[in-house]
Design goal:
five-stranded parallel β-sheet; alpha/beta; about 500 residues
Length: about 500
């Protein structure tokens, strides 16, 4: 054992500070209590997922049977098929690892695995039908499989929202011990504590020995040196150790740490300096016994983009037909409120820097643009975007339209014309693009969207920098599953009406 590690162990034997939630426990009781809490709520969550998935398949097969056959005598054997689909569905979800804890609770990987299981279930049924020389009614199969996948996705989405609500109150959190230098620990702690949905609660930190004195400036307790991190994590009741970029933690030391944490069943997370890069783009490849991280390029063209374009046009066309009465009602309200034109058209920047005219229902008085310059000083934005919660230029009808995003429905026309997408970066003004630094122009490589991460993460409450950052993250990590999740979150954000003004 090195001198540094011995000194670290000596520091770790000092009295460990208690968090308020666990004060009064011994070190051993504290560690057992932290692990018990984690396994209890995680096990309960997985059991609820099983019930949701099984129930989704039962409801879907029952609906398919009733809608397709309506009690026909020749369809009796479909009852047997309807009984077999729910357990087969749950089994396929298990085979696609849709119940693994590392993909649950946050991120889109869980939803991707559910959709993958839906494809597998279709292939299994079709193959079984072929082998048994049995013709299965296509209407029954379509309703059962599509509805099963949709209900399972919706149920998991609802469960995650319930979990996030519990985390807002401090429950169902992973207790994290952070390892690294003081500035990195402070930055990571602040970032994790700003948002609760990820489920990481930093309970303390371990620092290099020469920085422990400087650790008094941190908002979390210091549990000792890096060499005694495993013992500190077990004593503090941490269930996760997060390693930040730290030269003192070299390969052999990190390997020993992993072995020690394995003994106490504590998770190990190594933070990467890669920003806004999704996990499915990162592959670890061994090169001469060394793990090398390979970063796949973002998918900005090819077959998946074609699928996205077809999906956009099909959904936009369908919504325009279904919402035709809403368009007429909104147009009538605008006319009765202030008169003047129904639509407002504004130049925005699209893919590749090309400009187009974006359509919206008019929510302001007709002289709004002429009054803008005089109101700049009262703006609540940050100098790039003009924001004002109680903008006097907004009409009475416009406030209602903005609150529920009804003013944005005419953008479906832009989607149909190929100028916009259903989901994408926020369509910027030319004046905004002129102020972009070079790396921010990355968001212009895809079509702007009617909704996006900016819409479901705060809408107008976001700063310009946050809006740009979310747009870049979307461009780098796009997938059809991400689009579907954003559309579901958009519906909830619109119903809440928060951040819209």
């Amino acid at each position: 054992m090195t001198t540094t590690e011995t000194a670290a162990d000596e520091v770790a034997t000092q009295e460990i500070p208690r968090t308020p939630q666990y004060s009064g426990f011994t070190e051993r009781e504290l560690g057992e209590r932290g692990h018990a809490d984690r396994w209890v709520w995680e096990a309960r969550y997985v059991k609820l997922l099983l019930l949701v998935d099984f129930g989704a398949a039962v409801i879907a097969t029952l609906a398919a049977f009733v809608l397709r056959f309506q009690g026909a005598a020749y369809a009796d054997w479909y009852i047997v098929l309807s009984v077999l689909i729910p357990p087969a569905w749950v089994g396929l979800l298990a085979l696609t690892h849709a119940y693994e804890r590392r993909v649950l609770f946050v991120g889109g990987e869980e939803y991707q695995r559910v959709m993958r299981a839906g494809v597998h279930l279709t292939l299994v049924i079709v193959l079984a039908s072929y082998v048994a020389h049995t013709d299965i009614a296509r209407g029954y199969l379509l309703i059962a499989l599509v509805l099963t996948t949709f209900l399972a996705l919706s149920g998991r989405f609802a469960l995650r929202k319930i979990l996030q609500r519990a985390r807002r109150g401090g429950a169902c959190m992973h207790r994290v011990l952070v390892l690294g230098h003081v500035p990195a620990v402070a930055k990571m702690t602040g970032q994790l504590h700003r948002r609760y949905h990820h489920g990481f609660q930093v309970i303390g930190a371990c620092l290099p020995l020469d920085q422990i004195a400087d650790g008094k400036t941190l908002d979390v307790p210091i549990y000792g040196g890096l060499g005694a991190a495993a013992n500190s994590a077990a004593a503090a009741g941490a269930d996760t150790v997060m390693v930040l970029s730290c030269p003192e933690l070299d390969g052999p030391m990190l390997r020993r740490l992993a072995w020690e944490l394995e003994r106490d069943d504590i998770d190990l997370i190594v933070s990467s300096s890669l920003v806004d890069t999704a996990g499915d783009r990162i592959t670890v490849r061994p090169v001469d016994g060394l793990p090398m991280m390979h970063i796949e390029h973002a998918t900005l063209s090819g077959g998946r983009r074609l699928v996205k374009a077809v999906f956009d046009v099909a959904v936009a066309l369908g919504l325009l037909v279904l919402l035709a009465p809403v368009f007429l009602a909104v147009a009538l309200v605008i006319k009765l409120d202030t008169g003047g034109p129904v639509f407002f058209r504004q130049v925005r920047v699209g893919r590749g820097g090309e400009t187009f005219r974006m359509n919206k229902f008019r929510t302001m008085h007709v002289d709004a643009e002429a009054r803008l310059a005089a109101m700049r000083q009262a703006a609540e934005g940050d100098g790039v975007l003009f924001k004002m919660r109680d903008d006097p230029r907004v009409t009475r009808a416009g406030r209602i339209l903005r609150r529920y995003s009804l003013d944005e429905l005419p953008q479906l026309i832009n989607v149909l014309l190929g100028q916009m997408s259903l989901v994408g970066p926020r369509p910027p003004l030319p004046a905004e693009v002129e102020q972009y630094p070079d790396d921010m122009r990355r968001r212009l490589v895809v079509r702007p969207g009617m909704t996006g991460l900016w819409q479901v993460s705060g809408r107008s409450d976001l700063s310009w920098e946050d809006s740009i950052r979310l747009d870049i993250r979307y461009v780098e990590n796009w997938s059809l599953t991400v689009d579907l999740v954003i559309l579901m979150r958009t519906a909830m954000a619109v119903m809440r009406g928060s951040g819209a003004y």
